[in-house]
Amino acid sequence: MKRVLIFILALALICTNALAAGISQNGTSVTVTDVPEGGKLIIAGYDEAGRLSASRIYAPENGTINAENSISGAAKTKMFLWDMNMLAPIEMTEQQPSAGSKMLVAYFSWTNNTDGIANHIADITGADKFEIVPVEPYGEENNNYYDENTRAYKEQYDNSARPEISGTVANMEQYDVVFLGFPIWYGKAPKLIYTFLESYDFEGKTVVPFCTSGSSGISTRELVPLAPGANWLDGRRFSGGASRDTVEEWVNSLDIEIEEEPEVTDNKMTLTIGGAAFTATLEDNATAAEFKKLLPMTLDMSELNGNEKYYYLDGNLPSAASNPGTIHEGDIMLYGSSCVVVFYKTFNTSYSYTKIGHIDDPAGLAAAVGSGNVSVEFK
Question: What mean pLDDT value characterizes the chain?
Answer without folding.
Answer: 84
